């Protein structure tokens, strides 16, 4: 009887260790992809940020954590989960401002709200960043 219990515990331990290894490999792969996307955009400075919302995704908002990066030609947000990118060429940015709400939703912290015009279509996104005012100054 004790042998059966030990076999079951050993099997459960093996399952837990396997799941931990698989999880660690997935996180490592996500981080590599995250860094690759930032490097491809030529980012010279970046900060941890949270996507608050994108105006064009009005019905399927997927806020979440990621990294906001700024390069000579691009503003990019690389989101961790769900994996996605918001990429805006700097010449298309029409304004950057600090606000406490976006698309009718209030935020507890200041938001960096960026608007842009791509091929005659306007769009906007809001990000929670540690120093929204300094990011606004970089973009204007």
**What is the straight-line distance between the termini?**
73 Å
Number of helices: 2
- The gyration radius over C-alpha positions equals 20 Å
Shape: elongated
Q: N-to-C SSE series?
A: HEEEEEEEH
As residue ranges, the low-confidence spans are none
Number of separate strands:
7
Tell me roughly what share of residues is in helical segments.
Answer: 25-40%
Tell me about this structure:
The chain has two helices and seven strands. The chain is of the alpha+beta class and 140 residues long. The chain has a seven-stranded antiparallel β-sheet, covered by helices on one side. 34% of the residues lie in helices and 46% in strands. The radius of gyration is 20 Å and the shape is elongated.
Task: Summarize the model shown.
With 140 residues, the chain is of the alpha+beta class. The chain has 2 helices and 7 strands.
Key phrases:
2 helices, elongated, 140 residues, alpha+beta, 7-stranded antiparallel β-sheet
List the SSEs and their pairings:
Elements: H1 2-40, E1 43-54, E2 64-71, E3 74-79, E4 84-89, E5 93-102, E6 105-118, E7 121-128, H2 132-139
Antiparallel strand pairs: 1-2, 1-7, 2-3, 3-4, 5-6, 6-7
């Amino acid at each position: 009887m004790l042998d059966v219990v030990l076999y079951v515990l050993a099997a459960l331990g093996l399952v837990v260790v396997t799941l931990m290894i698989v999880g660690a490999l997935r996180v490592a792969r996500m981080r590599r992809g995250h860094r690759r996307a930032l490097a491809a955009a030529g980012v010279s400075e970046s900060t941890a940020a949270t996507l608050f919302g994108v105006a064009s995704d009005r019905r399927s908002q997927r806020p979440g954590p990621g990294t906001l990066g700024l390069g000579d030609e691009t503003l990019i947000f690389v989101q961790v989960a769900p994996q996605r990118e918001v990429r805006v060429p700097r010449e298309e940015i029409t304004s950057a401002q600090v606000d406490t709400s976006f698309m009718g939703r209030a935020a507890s912290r200041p938001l960096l709200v960026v608007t842009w015009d791509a091929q005659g279509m306007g769009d906007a996104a809001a990000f929670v960043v540690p120093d929204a005012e300094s990011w606004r100054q970089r973009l204007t």
